[in-house]
């Protein structure tokens, strides 16, 4: 039996809406990364972008476990000498709740062109509304809860 490799013409992409209310950040991000990669499909090919589009709503209501709300710090660098910036989790949640989930999912995707392309199919919104109703997205619920 030959190894199956998915062709670009065979890819069928779906749109999924996922509600992040009361979901645990890491477990939730793994499920989103699986949808983006297409690992839930029987036609999964590691080197191809065969995944689906994911729209996440209510990302400001996501949870983290333990004392991470007080201890977790997000780092970034401006590119200038001495330009290391540190932002605590609570401040990031107040100002940019979408970046919390995007950072978690980005760390679970490949670190190459494919990973950047996969991350482009992720849409994150802080509130319950999104502008993607024309794509007729399917409602998706996480498998672990």
Automatic annotation (TrEMBL):
The keyword Zinc does not apply. GO terms for cellular component: cytosolic large ribosomal subunit. InterPro entries: Ribosomal_uL13 (IPR005822), Ribosomal_uL13_bac-type (IPR005823), Ribosomal_uL13_CS (IPR023563), Ribosomal_uL13_sf (IPR036899). Keywords: Ribonucleoprotein, Ribosomal protein. Signal peptide: none annotated. One of its GO terms (biological process) is negative regulation of translation. It comes from the Bacteria. It holds the Pfam family Ribosomal_L13. SUPFAM superfamilies: Ribosomal protein L13. One of its GO terms (molecular function) is mRNA binding. Gene3D superfamilies: Ribosomal protein L13. This protein is one of the early assembly proteins of the 50S ribosomal subunit, although it is not seen to bind rRNA by itself. It is important during the early stages of 50S assembly. Part of the 50S ribosomal subunit. Belongs to the universal ribosomal protein uL13 family. This is Large ribosomal subunit protein uL13.
